[in-house]
Design a protein that fits this description.
heterodimer; A: alpha/beta; Nucleotidyltransferase, domain 5; five-stranded mixed beta sheet; 11 helices; 6 strands; 45% helix; 12% strand; B: alpha+beta; Jelly Rolls; CBS-domain; Beta Polymerase, domain 2; 4 domains; four-stranded antiparallel beta sheet; 23 helices; 24 strands; flat; CBS domain (chain B); GlnD_Uridyltrans_N (chain B); Cyclic nucleotide-binding/CBS domain-containing protein (chain B)
Chain lengths: 241, 637
């Protein structure tokens, strides 16, 4: 049962070591620069870490069949989300855009037709991520999609540590003894989707499925989670995956 | 700006002072905010910490404290804080703590400064130049019914029109005959079609000028023009005119802009009348004057009682026309005094002439000319010293009874504290009254003065005016030299305190408790009036009206620079708020009262009321310090 495996003792991956090793082995200059910027050490308190909330809107869930439509990010720290430094791009998906995802992401066909390929924004995107710890809600989208997209364009992929606000919620609401008891009683599981999670912290309802708004929403959610269940002193190693 | 910050932009755009920002500024603002989350109980601003940001509450609730730890304010979604520190020394003066889980938008100082520079409303709101209350009161004044009433409503007759060939003397005769003060001068149609029109008999004319009373002085008499000169020689060019469907307000502006007192009103191109500046002034006060003349036409107490609904109608109209509280208070007091006077006239007609001279004295709000629509009667009789109780009191009791019952029938309820001329204690000769006042001032205790402070607003409504004037003189002379009396009055003026402000749908008290409504008289106007009275007594003012008293106080050094102005604006705002809520009550067919419910208070009004409460609260603190209880009873002279 995957839930049980997740709940077993988490091992702390050596992300700074991994990034340093990649910096030495990659050849594309963009990636060399990206990996060389490294990431904070595992014992860095979360309160001192430079963070960046990232959200991708995609045409589907499978990075092998679907494509990135838009990218939103906003740099932040535990105390401040700096909207002035926000970035947002619409990119032309390498695979056709279905009508369903048009309605979902509020991005129109014509907007997409005029948009650049992801490759043209990569220097800026990787520059904005470099040296910062990426924060996402549900890491199984952002990381694999970005890795695949970069690999296609630069010949080599990117991998990086993330703090996943959804798995922080899952630790509370899916893996705890209490939640397992609830499940055993036949009660529906608590939703850990972005919007539902935010409501539990008194955060306002934002219009979802916009890459920048979701990035902002994710950054706020992490601030709330740390303020509620952790502390600014909590080391990154306990939070990232 | 990109569409993606709509979430932030739209939210801020709903709350003052951001609601009045241009779209461009709002976009700029939304793009620059920083966001921070605070768990309930977490500090947002710590005392003396350096700040360079304005704080905006996106969700949650925040409590702001004074330096000494007292609760200063409780704020909710859409409220701002931190601007006082930003505008002063960048040190936090009022620490803030999250009361609930709270999301704050921080607005960087550079953006804040830019908003202050480019948006006057924003600057007013954060009190950059002038107090927020002052601009609110001024705006209230501007939002006047004059804007929507058309100027044709002021016209009562067609204009006097004379041909250019008419002699000066004949023109003067026609103007006098029509009891007018101006005439339009007409000529045969010429080269100026703009001023050409056809009269009711289809004859074409061209208007070539206006002749006013002052022209006869400046152009005829002063320059020695012959009486048989044609008026055409007097007028220079076609007059400035206004269309009949323009607003009264526009007419007034046109007159002021061009420094003229007469303004011809045209329907298309045909003159239909001339408005004089005094017509506009008269219009402003018309309805209450009409009611007053109607009061004096009544021949019975029953007839007077039937006018009670008219008082409400006149009140609503005065408010809708945008009058300020001073005008409304004085009009309602005039109406109240007129009822009183007429009732006395009717009583005298029935009971016969008074055996000795008397003065009917009014107290409280009527004496101050600050009456509201919800009011009771406070009155007394000051009789001649020739008064002999055994012989004369039956007459004056009957007189007082008629007035009191008559007033009650007109809607002025009986005084709960029995401050009425029907009470024997308050139906006394002048010498006894002097004794009362001497005793109150010489042997004051807060307890004794609690029920007699109403007599320190006193005015005559009818009869021997000098009786009450002597009492006013006595008070004005004695009070400033009696620190113990002033201290006792000051102590009583602190019995009623304002609330802190509003929070969501509640009234916030200083101890953090919530109430569902607030009595704006008890918690606002009355304590304000009380404290102004103490200062007025201290400076020997004979004025009864609070605004007049503030004028007198302003001529002394009693209050620090600018404090008097603040009190004036605060009182005006509190009084107007109370009046507006009474109008709402009347319009929704409820019995008007002095309560306001937070859900009926608009955002901007909340902020202004909160400011007014603050002014009152500070002024009360000063009062305590200014008129301390002497440690030993002061020796009286």
């Amino acid at each position: 049962m995957p839930a049980l495996r997740l709940s077993s003792k988490r091992s702390v991956p050596d992300w700074p070591g991994y990034l340093a090793q990649r910096a030495a082995s990659v050849s594309h200059p963009l990636l060399v620069r990206y990996f060389a910027a490294g990431c904070p050490a595992a014992d860095t308190p979360i309160g001192e870490a430079p963070l960046v909330a990232l959200d991708l809107e995609t045409t589907g869930m499978d990075e092998r069949r679907h494509a990135i439509v838009s990218v939103g990010l906003v740099p932040f720290t535990l105390s401040r989300i700096r909207l002035a430094e926000r970035r947002y791009w619409v990119v032309r998906p390498s695979r056709p855009l279905s009508n369903k995802s048009v309605t979902l992401h509020h991005i129109t066909h014509s907007e997409v037709a005029e948009a650049p390929d992801l490759e043209t924004i990569l220097p800026e995107l990787l520059g904005a991520l470099a040296g910062r710890l990426v924060v996402v809600h549900f890491r199984h989208i952002e990381r694999p999609f970005l890795e695949a997209a970069v690999k296609v364009r630069l010949g080599e992929g990117v991998r990086f540590p993330v703090i996943d606000t959804m798995s922080l919620e899952a630790r509370r609401h899916r893996l705890s003894l209490w939640s397992r008891f609830r499940r055993w009683m036949g009660r529906p599981p608590v939703s850990i989707r972005l919007h539902d999670s935010r409501v539990r912290y008194g955060l306002p309802a934002y219009q979802g499925h916009h890459a920048l708004v979701d990035a902002l929403a994710t950054a706020e959610l992490l601030q709330a989670q740390i303020a509620t269940h952790y502390a600014p002193q909590t080391p990154l190693g306990e939070l990232w995956s | 700006m990109e569409v993606e910050l709509l979430e932030i932009r739209q939210h801020m755009g709903r709350f003052p002072p951001f609601d009045s920002l241009s779209d461009e500024l709002l976009d700029e603002l939304a793009g620059q905010v920083e966001v921070g989350y605070f768990k309930a109980g977490a500090d947002i601003l710590v005392l003396d910490q350096e700040v360079h940001e304005l704080c905006y509450i996106r969700s949650g609730a925040v409590e702001v404290y004074r330096r000494n730890g007292d609760l200063y304010n409780r704020l909710g979604e859409g409220d701002i804080f931190g601007h006082f520190s930003l505008l002063r020394n960048h040190r936090v003066r009022f620490p803030a703590r999250a009361l609930e889980d709270t999301l704050i938008y921080f607005i960087p100082e550079a953006v804040f400064r830019r908003l202050c520079e480019s948006d006057e409303h924003f600057a007013d709101f954060v009190e950059l130049d002038r107090p927020r209350l002052k601009s609110a009161v001024e705006q209230q004044k501007k939002a006047n019914d004059m804007m929507i009433t058309r100027v044709r409503k002021l016209l009562t007759r067609y204009p006097v029109m004379v041909e250019a060939s008419t002699t000066v003397q004949e023109a003067a005769r026609q103007i006098t005959k029509a009891q007018a003060s101006a005439a339009l001068v007409l000529d045969a149609p010429g080269d100026n079609p703009r001023y050409t029109f056809t009269d009711s008999e289809d004859r074409p004319w061209q208007m070539c000028g206006i002749l006013t009373d002052s022209d006869f002085r400046t152009k005829v008499v002063a320059e020695g023009l012959a009486p048989d000169a044609p008026v055409g020689e007097l007028v220079g060019r076609p007059p400035i005119t206004i269309q009949s469907d323009e607003s009264v307000h526009e007419a007034m502006l046109t007159m002021l802009r061009n420094n003229i007192h007469h303004l011809p009103v045209l329907y298309r191109r045909r003159p239909v009348g001339i408005v004089h500046l005094s017509d506009i002034i008269r219009y402003e006060t018309h309805s209450s004057l009409y009611l007053v003349s109607n009061i004096f036409n009544q021949s019975s107490a029953e007839g007077l009682a039937r006018l009670a609904p008219d008082v409400r109608a006149a009140f609503v109209r005065m408010v809708e026309e945008g009058n300020n509280s001073q005008m409304i208070g004085s009009a309602l007091s005039t109406i109240g005094r007129s009822f009183t006077r007429r009732l006395l006239e009717l009583a005298e007609a029935e009971l016969g002439p008074p055996p000795v001279p008397y003065c009917f004295m009014v107290n409280g709000s009527m004496a101050r000319n600050e009456q509201s629509i919800v009011t009771d009667q406070d009155n007394a009789l000051v009789l001649s010293d020739d008064f002999d109780p055994g012989e004369h009191d039956a007459y004056f009791l009957a007189l007082a009874q008629r007035v009191s019952d008559g007033l009650a029938a007109c809607g002025y309820t009986y005084c709960k504290g029995d401050v009425m001329a029907t009470n024997r204690t308050w139906r006394q000769p002048l010498s006894v009254w002097k004794g009362y006042f001497n005793d109150w001032i010489d042997n004051p205790t807060p307890e004794r003065l609690l029920h007699s402070s109403i007599f320190f607003d006193l005015d005559s409504a009818y009869g021997e005016v000098p009786f009450v004037e002597q009492l006013q003189d006595l008070v004005a002379k004695k009070a400033p030299q009696s620190p113990l009396f002033l201290a006792a009055m000051a102590r009583n003026a602190l019995n009623r305190t304002p609330p802190l402000g509003f929070f969501r749908t509640f009234v916030m008290e200083k101890d953090g408790k919530h109430n569902n409504s607030i009595n704006l008289k008890r918690r606002g106007t009355a304590p304000m009036v009380d404290l102004i009275r103490v200062h007025a007594l201290a400076c020997g003012s004979r004025a009864q009206n609070s605004f007049d008293r503030l004028d007198d106080i302003g001529r002394t050094q009693l209050l620090a620079q600018g404090v008097g102005e603040k009190l004036r604006y605060a009182l005006e705002f509190l009084a107007m708020s109370r009046i507006h809520h009474q109008v709402i009550d009347i319009q929704e067919e409820r019995e008007p009262d002095n309560n306001i419910e937070p859900e009926n208070v608009a955002d901007s009004e909340r902020h202004n009321l909160k400011d007014a409460f603050q002014v009152l609260s500070n002024a009360q603190k000063f009062l305590k310090y200014r008129y301390p209880m002497p440690s030993r009873p002061a020796r009286t002279r």
